[in-house]
């Protein structure tokens, strides 16, 4: 018949392409560590390059979203090539730990360098940078004296003045999860409902858009991760945007923080190499770059922040272990659905 | 046309070969594997999640999805058909370059156009800001709305309809319209009563692709924060860490799409429209002095909004982040081109295989299996990627276990290879590769086959002398669509690529996932330009083909 | 014999499309299979071309066996040309390229020569470089014939070759095609449902019915000496009138006594075939019949007449004998050869 003839012709063409493409994956001689990273290539590659130069260990890595990375680890099982998993939020690390995808890392260095509340209680993962989710306001329209807590943003005085990012984003899910952990589900739902009522415009797809809306006067204040503000201010320092650190009162819990962090995979082929990489990432020299690359806060409290970040002042973090963000995340999503937070 | 064409060949029973059944079965299995993984999620019941979704989420999202389908369907039909008719059957200033210019939105990813449009038109954008600066106030443009997302998706997806409708109008539209005019129809009524209904099967095929892509889309709706059924799937998975519930939701989507496809096919049963001959050059409708400029304006407007504006914005942004441009971009481009190229070849092969199998073995079961094999296009990419990765890893793990039992260390068979990527692209894009080829294959009548064999031509000779020349247009269309789709594709590329195989789409993902849209412009514009290459080649090939014939 | 079908059957199990068909053509002869749609005539053609395998019998062309039960020489190796009902011209090839399609073995020069020869034969030299969609129906048809003839096939098959053309063109082309075939000395088998076409083209015609040939004969015999009432009804016009065989082997019918035919037992009830030309208009005849319908045919008029006893007849009368409907006219019988079928047959 007709088809087999076509098949043989086309197969030859494809076979040639495939052969060329398959070659590189079969070369590995020196010591190496393999990373699955949800942290972007442009943020993580400079550090891996530095580590390769410093240690002589080769770092191979793949980026993807957390969900697919976890599914991938699970599917690959004992044969996974990955030694280390990096994420940009605590919830997914918690989920990876709960699914048995990580193994404990026994490292006094890490325990010394990273505070307790940024580490898994069972040492399955560790935070490497801190991402603070805080209030940013337009100083032309808001008197900072009016501001106090996340909960207060639900007050009627902010009706039509608040901008928020979508509740599909994990940062907001973590924030609400922490609210649940601190104040209970009922109170958290009351707060979120208040936020929704106060919205000036439907939620934005990203933090930057929300910040721009505040700067342009579409609304007066928003909740964002600080590094988004940093990026905007780097481009245009004159933007009318100021940071306020909420929940700083004696009774209050402190600023909600999330982490970007990592853990060693259950079936790592090079667990020792992975541990050394983690320890290096938590070290003073790496921490400044790891956090500084993206204007985040170092997880290692001994390391100085970038100058722009320092200009925003000091703040007290919520001492609650970030693992709670994962534990309550599903409840938080449901809560936001109930409250009509899109 | 004649009766001989409409009758499927009833090959004598003893001569019926086995390969078509095997091929259809293999293709269906390739798609059924990931689908099976998705449906298997029902073994892990998620009653509480469903109750929650049913009460708070699904009613709104289903309505949203329905509106989106309706709007994008109507929008792409309107844009695609009107532009196709104007460029195929009429003469107006600028027609020549608009004809191919209007294909270019194919290369512009929907999320890029969405982001650009929001950036330009929203409250904080230059338009409203300028107006506010000048007049103190500006009218609110509700771009982040249902209307906005529909407009943007229609503007990026209409080429699917445009391409096929143009083809149909070119081969038969003008003649049919003349026939209608002799029967007393005005030109306008003739268009709606004759030309349009005759082109319906093609338009329906294009619309099917558009609607499937709309259902599966996450990137564009996410830019608008417009929640659809896909959003629910990802909310269950990423937000609630519940892959089972997400898969169950996805399986609902599969059932929906399959029923819709079956219905569509049922409504077309018994009808077959075969275009006779090909375009005759130089007998276009000469529009009136006003109408011709209106035609230019309409086509030019669509081109400006869907292509020129986003390109200009991307260029401006790319210039700002030109510091990112380094030698590695050659690698990204190289990887993108290799993947899209070999993917296009592979998917076209699968499309040919499916089309020929269905032709050699027509029947109810075969056609259902054929439909099934094209379902991958309607699934959210990430869900499909996981559905594909699971069985693939199972095979690899079995392979490695077998090796270790034999005392060997065997590398994974599939994981981290291009074979796996190409298979996954096949599952995803078979619909795109199959439809144009199937349509073209209808032009090769069974009596042409028989005539050729009668003249001593068979096998490869028949293929190269009769089939390939006649299928060239269909194969080219399929290849271009698949090529461009793979260039833009993210989830499967991210999940199945070998270490170090970053592509332009992966770069865009890296930048956009942390909101760095301006920096994403550089890979985005490289991707658009690279995607233009096959589109332009395709148009040139098309022109040449017509010149040959004239 | 150039073509010989011996007891062939096509189909499978109980549903044989063709059952026990036998026919033969001498070299250079043009044969024609005639029949209503669904009688199996196209299937017979496709079996000869090699598109359908045989369940029984064998097909021989020249001295080569092409098909037998369980074995079919592939179409491309048969040297049997075929013209399809829809012509099946290749739309991406010009007229000349279509004709050259089957001339693969020849050198370029000889191929060009042969194509020119064929174009000349079908009178399309000026349209060599036109594409099928630029040709009229008749021109397409001639390209199809030329394409099939170009490789000099041992046998040419044509499937309803004129059905896509209008009546006038059909008549002209069928004569043209006959001339072309005769000029090329080609043996051909043509399938049609149109008896005029069959009579115009063929040396031998076979009337087919449900997979069998009822009669394989010259056009003259088919018309004037039908072997069955089915053939009699299908070919030409006429009526069957009841009669009885007399002791002198004459047959008595209402119109009178007919000359003897085949020896049938005395007293057998028969139906006698009367063609319109067997009835002659004769104003002096005592036998009168009323005009019930008339069809003007230019040179003649076809009258439907009713006898006093109620039986109806057809009569072909020169057209200057113009009678109104209802009028009674005189007729007499002028049957030279009488065809009679026993009533129970």
Distance between the termini of chain C: 34 Å
Output the strand order for the largest sheet of chain C: 7-8-9-3-10-11
CATH class of the largest domain in chain A: Alpha Beta
- Kindly state the mean pLDDT of chain C as a whole number? 86
- The whole-number mean of residue pLDDT values of chain A reads 90
Overall, the morphology of chain A is globular
What portion of residues of chain A belong to β-strands? 15-25%
- The helix/strand series of chain A, from N terminus to C terminus, equals HEHEHEHEHEEHHHEHEEHHEHHH
What would you note in describing this structure?
The complex is a heterotrimer of chains A (342), B (550) and C (345). Chain A is α/β, with parallel strands linked by helices and 342 residues long. Chain A is built from 14 helices and 10 strands. The longest helix of chain A has 20 residues, at 3-22. The radius of gyration of chain B is 24 Å and the shape is globular. Chain B contains 21 helices and 2 strands. Chain C has 2 domains: 3-233, Rossmann fold; 238-342, OB fold (Dihydrolipoamide Acetyltransferase, E2P). Chains A and B meet through helix 1, helix 2, strand 2, helix 3 and helix 8 of A and helix 3, helix 10, helix 13, helix 15 and helix 16 of B.
Q: What are the key terms here?
A:
heterotrimer, A: 342 residues, alpha/beta, D-Maltodextrin-Binding Protein, domain 2, 2 domains, 10-stranded mixed beta sheet, 14 helices, 10 strands, C: 345 residues, alpha+beta, Rossmann fold, OB fold (Dihydrolipoamide Acetyltransferase, E2P), 5-stranded antiparallel beta sheet, globular
Would you kindly provide a brief summary of this structure?
The complex is a heterotrimer of chains A (342), B (550) and C (345). Chain A is an alpha/beta fold and 342 residues long. Chain A is built from 14 helices and ten strands.
């Amino acid at each position: 018949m007709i088809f087999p003839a076509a098949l043989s012709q086309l197969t030859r063409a494809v076979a040639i392409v495939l052969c060329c493409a398959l070659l590189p994956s079969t070369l590995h001689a020196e010591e190496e560590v393999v990373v699955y990273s949800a942290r972007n290539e442009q943020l993580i590659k400079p550090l891996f390059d530095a580590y390769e130069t410093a240690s002589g260990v080769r770092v191979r890595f793949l980026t993807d979203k957390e969900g697919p990375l976890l599914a991938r680890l699970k599917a690959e099982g004992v044969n996974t090539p990955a030694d280390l998993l990096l994420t940009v939020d605590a919830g997914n690390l918690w989920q990876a730990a709960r699914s048995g995808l990580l193994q404990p890392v026994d490292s006094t260095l890490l325990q010394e360098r990273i505070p307790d509340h940024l580490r898994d209680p069972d040492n399955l993962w560790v935070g490497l940078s801190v991402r603070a989710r805080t209030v940013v306001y337009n100083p032309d329209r808001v008197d900072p004296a009016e501001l106090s807590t996340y909960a207060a943003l639900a007050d009627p005085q902010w009706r039509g003045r608040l901008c928020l990012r979508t509740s599909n984003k994990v940062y907001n899910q973590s924030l609400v999860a922490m609210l649940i952990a601190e104040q209970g589900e009922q109170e958290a739902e009351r707060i979120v409902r208040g936020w929704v009522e106060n919205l000036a415009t439907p939620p934005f797809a990203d933090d930057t858009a929300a910040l721009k809306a505040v700067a342009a006067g579409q609304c007066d204040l928003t909740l964002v991760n600080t590094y988004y503000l940093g990026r905007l201010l780097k481009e245009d320092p004159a933007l009318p945007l100021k940071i306020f650190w909420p929940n700083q009162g004696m009774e209050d819990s402190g600023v909600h923080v999330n982490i970007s962090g990592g853990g060693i995979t259950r079936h790592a082929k090079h667990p020792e190499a992975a541990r050394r990489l983690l320890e290096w990432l938590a070290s003073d020299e790496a921490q400044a770059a790891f956090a500084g690359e993206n204007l985040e806060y170092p997880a290692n409290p001994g390391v100085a922040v970038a100058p722009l970040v320092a200009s925003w002042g000091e703040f007290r973090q919520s001492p609650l272990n970030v693992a709670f963000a994962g534990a309550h995340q599903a409840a938080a999503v449901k809560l936001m659905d109930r409250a009509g937070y899109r | 046309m004649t009766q001989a064409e409409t009758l499927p060949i009833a090959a004598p029973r003893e001569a019926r070969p086995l390969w078509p059944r095997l091929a259809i079965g293999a293709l269906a299995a390739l798609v059924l594997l990931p689908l099976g993984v998705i449906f298997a999620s029902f073994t892990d019941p998620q009653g509480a999640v469903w109750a929650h979704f049913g009460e708070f989420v699904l009613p709104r999202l289903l309505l949203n999805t329905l509106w989106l389908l309706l709007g994008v369907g109507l929008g792409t039909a309107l844009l695609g058909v009107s532009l196709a008719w104007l460029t195929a059957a009429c003469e107006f200033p600028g027609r020549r370059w608009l004809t191919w210019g209007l294909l270019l939105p194919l290369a512009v990813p929907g999320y890029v156009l969405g982001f650009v449009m929001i950036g330009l038109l929203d409250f904080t954008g230059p338009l409203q800001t300028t107006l506010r600066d000048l007049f103190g106030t500006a009218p609110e443009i509700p771009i982040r709305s249902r209307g906005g997302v529909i407009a943007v998706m229609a503007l990026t997806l209409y080429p699917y309809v445009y391409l096929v409708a143009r083809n149909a109008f070119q081969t038969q539209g003008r003649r049919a319209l003349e026939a209608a005019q002799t029967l007393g129809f005005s030109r306008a009524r003739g268009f709606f009563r004759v030309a349009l209904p005759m082109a319906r099967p093609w338009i329906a095929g294009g619309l099917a692709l558009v609607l499937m892509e709309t259902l599966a889309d996450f990137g564009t709706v996410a830019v608008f924060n417009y929640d659809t059924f896909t959003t629910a799937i990802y909310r269950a998975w990423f937000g609630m860490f519940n892959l089972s519930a997400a898969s169950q939701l996805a399986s609902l989507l599969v059932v929906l799409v399959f029923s819709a496809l079956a219905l569509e096919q049922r409504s077309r049963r018994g009808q077959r429209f075969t275009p006779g001959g090909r375009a005759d050059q130089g007998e276009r409708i000469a529009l009136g002095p006003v109408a011709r400029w209106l035609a230019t304006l309409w086509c030019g407007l669509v081109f400006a909004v869907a292509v020129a504006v986003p390109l200009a914005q991307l260029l401006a942004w790319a210039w700002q982040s030109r510091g990112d441009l380094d030698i590695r971009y050659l690698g990204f481009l190289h990887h993108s081109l290799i993947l899209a190229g070999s993917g296009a070849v592979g998917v076209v092969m699968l499309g040919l295989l499916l089309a020929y199998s269905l032709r050699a073995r027509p029947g109810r079961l075969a056609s259902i299996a054929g439909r099934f094999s094209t379902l991958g296009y309607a699934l959210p990419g990430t869900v499909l990627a996981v559905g594909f990765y699971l069985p693939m890893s199972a095979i690899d793990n079995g392979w490695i276990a077998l090796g270790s039992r034999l005392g060997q260390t065997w590398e994974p068979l599939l994981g981290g290879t291009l074979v796996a990527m190409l298979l996954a692209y096949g599952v995803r894009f078979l619909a795109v590769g199959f439809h144009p080829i199937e349509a073209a294959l209808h032009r090769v009548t069974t009596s042409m086959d028989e005539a050729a064999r009668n003249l001593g031509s068979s096998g490869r000779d028949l293929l190269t002398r009769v089939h390939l020349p006649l299928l060239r247009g269909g194969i080219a269309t399929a290849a271009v669509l698949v090529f461009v789709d793979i260039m833009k594709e993210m989830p499967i590329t991210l999940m199945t690529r070998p270490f170090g195989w970053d592509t332009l789409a992966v770069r865009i993902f890296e930048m956009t996932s942390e909101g760095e849209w301006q920096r994403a412009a550089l890979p985005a514009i490289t991707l658009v330009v690279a995607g233009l290459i096959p589109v332009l080649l395709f148009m040139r090939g098309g022109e040449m083909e017509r010149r040959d014939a004239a | 014999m150039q073509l010989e079908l011996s007891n062939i059957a096509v189909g499978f199990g109980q549903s044989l499309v063709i059952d026990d068909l036998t026919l033969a053509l001498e070299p250079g002869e043009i044969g024609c299979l005639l029949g209503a749609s669904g009688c199996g005539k196209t299937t017979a053609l496709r079996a000869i071309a090699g598109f359908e395998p045989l369940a029984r019998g064998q097909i021989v062309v020249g001295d080569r066996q092409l098909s037998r039960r369980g074995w079919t020489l592939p179409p491309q190796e048969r040297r049997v040309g075929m013209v399809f009902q829809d012509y099946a011209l290749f739309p991406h090839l010009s007229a000349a390229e279509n004709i050259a399609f089957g001339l693969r073995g020849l050198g370029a020069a000889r191929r060009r020569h042969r194509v020119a020869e064929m174009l000349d034969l079908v009178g399309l030299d000026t349209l060599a470089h036109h594409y099928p969609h630029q040709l009229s129906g008749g021109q397409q048809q001639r390209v199809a014939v030329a394409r099939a003839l170009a490789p000099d096939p041992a046998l040419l098959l044509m499937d309803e070759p004129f059905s896509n053309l209008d009546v006038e063109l059909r008549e002209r082309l069928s004569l043209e095609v006959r001339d072309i075939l005769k000029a090329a000395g080609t043996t051909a088998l043509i399938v049609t449902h149109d008896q005029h076409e069959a009579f115009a083209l063929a040396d031998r015609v076979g009337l087919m019915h449900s997979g069998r040939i009822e009669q394989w004969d010259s056009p003259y015999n088919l018309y004037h000496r039908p072997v069955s009432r089915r053939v009699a009804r299908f070919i030409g016009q006429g009526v069957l009138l009841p009669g009885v065989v007399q002791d002198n082997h004459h047959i008595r019918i209402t119109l009178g006594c007919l000359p003897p035919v085949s020896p049938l037992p005395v007293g057998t009830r028969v139906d006698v075939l009367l063609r319109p030309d067997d009835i002659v208009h004769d104003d002096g005849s005592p036998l009168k019949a009323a005009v019930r319908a008339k069809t003007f045919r230019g040179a003649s008029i076809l009258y439907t007449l009713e006898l006093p006893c109620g039986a109806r007849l057809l009569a072909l009368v020169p057209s200057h004998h113009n009678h109104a409907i209802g009028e009674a006219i005189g007729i007499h019988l002028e049957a030279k050869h009488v065809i009679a079928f026993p009533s129970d047959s």
